[in-house]
C-alpha cells in the first residue's frame, strides 16, 4: 500500500486527488489530510478515507474539527505548526495543493522526510525554487510536477536528452478576458474574473488566469523546475486548452501533450509515476474538436508576462517578491479595493522598490531569508495598493 498525504485536501486539486484515491481504496493508506477552513469537508473525507490525521490551518477551528471527528478515533490538529507536522508524518507520496506561499514550509517538511512531493503549489517553486530543489536532493526525495503544463513537459521529456531541448511552449487559455476590449479591463469585476472558459479551479488561480499571472508564475516554475533558460520559455494563447505544452528539440521536432482539461490526468500521472494506469479522464475526440488555435499573447493585455521575464532576468529573491506582491494584489482586488488592471501595477511597483536591494540578490536562501523577503514584499504591495485604492 502506498502511504499518501494530501495538503490542501479541501481545494480543487485536493478534491481531484481524493477522487482518484477513493476509486482504489485498497491501494492507499491515507496518512494526513489538511484543509484551510472547510472543516465539514475535511472531516467527511478524513472519515471516508480513514486518514490517521486531519489538520485545519485555522487554529480557532480545532474544536469544530474535533466535534466533526468525534467517535471516529481519528487525530485532529490545527494551526501552522500542525500543518508542518502533518507534512512530516512518514508517507511515500505527498500532494502539495495548498494555494499560495503558505504551501512552501509544509512542502519542505514533506521533502525532509523523503516523500515524493507531487507539486501543484507552483508558488513554492517561484518563491524558493533553489531551496526546494536542494532540500529534495539532500533528503533523496523527488518532486513531480502536477501543474498541467509542467506535467506535459515532464512527459514529453521522458527518454529525451535534456541537452537536445531548444524551446518549451506553455499554452494559456487567455482567461476570462481574452476577447474583451482592452479599455474594459479596468472595470472588470471579481465575479467576471472568477469564471474560466475551460478549467474548473480554485478562485485565486482562476483570476490569475484572467490576468495571466498564473502563466507568469508557470514561466518561472518551468525555469526553476527544469532549468530552462528564460529565452527558451515561450507562451502561446490556445483557447481550446487541449494542448497543455510543447517541447521543441534541436532537430526541429515539437512534442505536444494533448488531452482534455481535467487535472486528474496530471495528478494521476504523478500518483502512478513511473507507471501509467488508466484514469477516469474523457477520451478526446479531435474530429469533434475540429480546430486547434494558437496565437501570440498581447503583452499590453497581459503585463504579467513581461514582469515574469524581468523576474527571471533578475534572479535571486525576485521570484519571492513577485509572488508575495501578486498574492497581496489579488487579495486587494478580491476585496474590491483595487481594479483588475492595478494588480500588475502593484506587483511592478513592489519589484521596483525591492528587487534591486542587495538582500534580494541571494541565490541560495534559507526559509527564514525567503520568509523575510515575502513579508517585506507584502508590506510594500499593501503600500502600493493604498495609492491606487478605488
Ligand atoms: P483552492 O483554493 O481550491 O484550494 C486550496 C487549498 O489550500 C484548500 O484546501 C484550502 O483550504 C487550503 N488553504 C488555503 N489557504 C491556506 C493556508 N494559508 N494554509 C493552509 N491551507 C490553506 O486552490 P486550487 O485551485 O486547488 O489550487 C491549489 C494549488 O494548485 C495552487 O498552488 C494552484 O496554483 C495549483 N494548481 C491548481 C490547478 C487547478 O486546476 N485548480 C491547476 C494547476 C495548479
Ligand atoms: Mg497550469
UniProtKB/TrEMBL annotation:
Listed EC numbers: 1.1.1.267
GO molecular function: 1-deoxy-D-xylulose-5-phosphate reductoisomerase activity; isomerase activity; manganese ion binding; NADPH binding
Residues annotated to bind 1-deoxy-D-xylulose 5-phosphate: 122, 148-149, 173, 196, 209, 214-215, 218
GO biological processes: isopentenyl diphosphate biosynthetic process, methylerythritol 4-phosphate pathway involved in terpenoid biosynthetic process
Record carries keyword Magnesium: yes
Pathways per UniProt: Isoprenoid biosynthesis; isopentenyl diphosphate biosynthesis via DXP pathway; isopentenyl diphosphate from 1-deoxy-D-xylulose 5-phosphate: step 1/6
Domain 1-deoxy-D-xylulose 5-phosphate reductoisomerase N-terminal: 4-129
Recorded family membership: Belongs to the DXR family.
Protein name: 1-deoxy-D-xylulose 5-phosphate reductoisomerase
